[in-house]
Amino acid sequence: MDLSKFIKETRIKQGLTMRKLASKAQISQAYISQIERGERHPQPDILRKLAVPLDVPYNKLMNIAGFLAEGQSASSLSAKSSIYEILKYKPTLGGEEITEIELDLAINVIKSFREAQKKK
Question: Where would one find the signal peptide in this protein (predicted)?
């Protein structure tokens, strides 16, 4: 199913106007309109904001949006979502922009460090 159509149909079924959905999801009405017209493809953080007011499981929205394979859980993508969230701010190190691969490596190092700390 097409995400834009699904969001619009679900919003209408829930009796929500675009303005009300935007308010509940804390995103702009213009952005909701762009999503529903298929002009914008929302990232996982926006889908998470839409899930509750639309009364739709987050995993279902992630699946329809193409971020998850059938049966895959959104929790398996939380690190990837974090990477994209950080990269939006174009972080630099030594004057050079940090790449997705470098950030992924840094996150894995932090995870390993935390696991080692738990074992102490």
Answer: none
Q: How far apart are CA 23 and CA 90, in angstroms?
A: 28
**What pLDDT score was predicted for residue 113?**
87
pTM as predicted: 0.61
Q: What percent of the chain has pLDDT over 90?
A: 45
Selecting from 1.10.260.40, 3.30.300.20, 3.40.50.150, 3.40.50.410, what CATH number does the domain 3-74 have?
1.10.260.40
Say whether pLDDT at 112 is over 90: no
Q: What would the 3-class secondary structure string for the chain be?
A: CCHHHHHHHHHHHCCCCHHHHHHHHCCCHHHHHHHHCCCCCCCHHHHHHHHHHHCCCHHHHHHHCCCCCCCCCHHHHHHHHHHHHHHCCCCEECCEECCHHHHHHHHHHHHHHHHHHHCC
